[in-house]
Amino acid sequence: MTDAGAKPWEHSHSFGQDVKRPGEARTIFVIVITAVMMVVEVAAGSVFGSMALLADGLHMASHTVALGINVFAYIYARRHAHDARYSFGTGKVNTLGGYTGAVLLAGFALVMVWESVARLVAPTSIAFNEAIFVAVIGLIVNGVSVFVLGEHRHPEHRDDLADELEEHGHYHDEHYHHHDHNLVSAYLHVLADALTSLLAIFALLAAKYFGLIWADPAMGVVGAVLVGRWSLGLLRTTSVVLLDREGPDDLRDLIRRRIEANESNHVTDLHLWAVGPRLYSAVLSVATDRPRPPDHYKGLLPRDLGIVHLVVEVHPAATAELSRR
């Protein structure tokens, strides 16, 4: 990406991170409706003396804070996109926000297990009507939030590159179409809330009409296990990016095929790593009998590959052979 008026060899390292991402506005909207519901529940719980209402209101407060971290990550990444102290832009701030959200989700799952086990051991009285009312309202609010944030799961358009990867048996949507990790984190938070509300309704109805008091804490354990699995999955995908793990094998194979389409070219070294959502940086060494300028080899790669920073080293084949001895 070259700035207007810049020389051909000069380019920006913001890589589009200065542009407001769609997930930012959606997350802010969810924070607003969650915060409003939180205030209503805390106020109602205090006035009517309902512990169920008060507890759920405080629970929503914790998720409001978690979603606030996601919004902070969006704004920080956008405002510091041109900060030269970030070698490859602020794309990983997005991933760091997702990682932080995943840690909070894991903590939320542990608290759910602790509380559920405690209530299995020492059951407490439940105000069924109030608790069911709270769970239904919470489910509606969280359902709206899931719908608002769930757009990130819609499949993106297919392009020639995706078709070529799939044709060679290498196409994996989860790798090529990198999710907005920050948005995924926010989505999982509201999905966890919706799940706990749904399980709570089921358990409370079972306890009220069939006397299955143990169902309420048991559903809490089930919900905690599911939330824990989601958090571990997000921790895994975000940590891969934060630790600069090599990019997907399908993209690396494609790069090699394109460069080595000419039999005189051989890729002797290749490093590919993510610097943001669907954004990669790469360093490539080519040994060839017919050396050409680096721009020639850059031109062999598809423009929609997602590589925003590419360094190409070119070595005459004889020199490359000597360096291997």
Topology:
Blueprint (H helix, E strand, L loop, with lengths): L21 H27 L2 H29 L11 H31 L6 H22 L10 H8 L5 H4 L4 H30 L4 H28 L6 H11 L5 E12 L2 E10 L5 H5 L8 E10 H8 L1
Parallel strand pairs: 2-3
Antiparallel strand pairs: 1-2
Describe the structure.
The protein is mostly helical and 325 residues long. It folds into two domains: 22-242, Alpha-lytic protease prodomain-like, CATH 1.20.1510; 249-324, Alpha-Beta Plaits (2-Layer Sandwich), CATH 3.30.70. Helices cover 62% and strands 10% of the residues. The chain has a three-stranded mixed beta sheet. Helix 7 packs antiparallel against helix 8 (215-242).
Structure characteristics:
325 residues, mainly alpha, Alpha-lytic protease prodomain-like, Alpha-Beta Plaits, three-stranded mixed sheet, 11 helices, elongated
CATH topology of the largest domain: Alpha-lytic protease prodomain-like
Residue share in helices?
55-70%
Please give the radius of gyration in angstroms: 25 Å
User: In this structure, how is the largest beta sheet organized?
Assistant: 3 strands, mixed
